[in-house]
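Appendix B, record 7
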Amino acid sequence: MKTKTILAIIPARGGSKRLPDKNIWPFAGTPLIAHTIKLARRCSAVDRIIVDTDSPKIATIARRYGAEVPFLRPAQLATDKALMVDAILHSLDRLAAQQRYRPDFVMLLQPNAPLTIADDLNRCVAVTKTAGVESVATVAATQPLLFTIKPNGTLEMANRVRLTSTNAQQLPGGYLFTGSVFLIKTSVLRRVRRFFTPATRPVEIPRWRAIDIDTAEDLALAELVYRNRTALNQRIKQLTSNRK
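Structure tokens (predicted):
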């Protein structure tokens, strides 16, 4: 059986308003995006690693850490309103036209999720080996009581679900996309133009590793967790073991 090719794409737009230069901000002594590049390099199933960016500065740093940046993202696909999927599809089109490279799968890796580990990627790849699986995404368990704030300042259950109990144990568990890893067949991505489909399979990761960096607060928290991740993981295992 022919080995399926997997292209890892790391999107890294230069403009970030809430945290300027977020993708190359120092994180535990290394540019943030470097952690994701190193992560992708530890996944043996990945065929190529490409950083999709409009920024020459980000491109230089990405290449330094072992990623390819064969071209820069066009300005019209790097605005606040531009959809990331359009930029990814544009990259796929250019790779096909210029290099005749057409991967079987696209693995989207976000540079603002430095707590992602190689096992997360390997588990996603393993799921795709099941017959019929076309899309996989990492998720984390979440508090089932989720609310939105209405324009008048009052609370409303997310998805307008009717609240019948405040006892979390009586409510169905919920999950959120971590946004850190999406793995999808290229043909499906081209057809649906999004990374999530009704047939997407989940790969669950611990909540403490599901930190998505968008603000200075996120960055500080993620760095604190990252520096103490070994001790934190050991403590969680210890507490879980004692409970059995």
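Remarks on this record: The CA atoms of residues 4 and 141 lie 30 Å apart. The first helix runs from residue 32 to 41.
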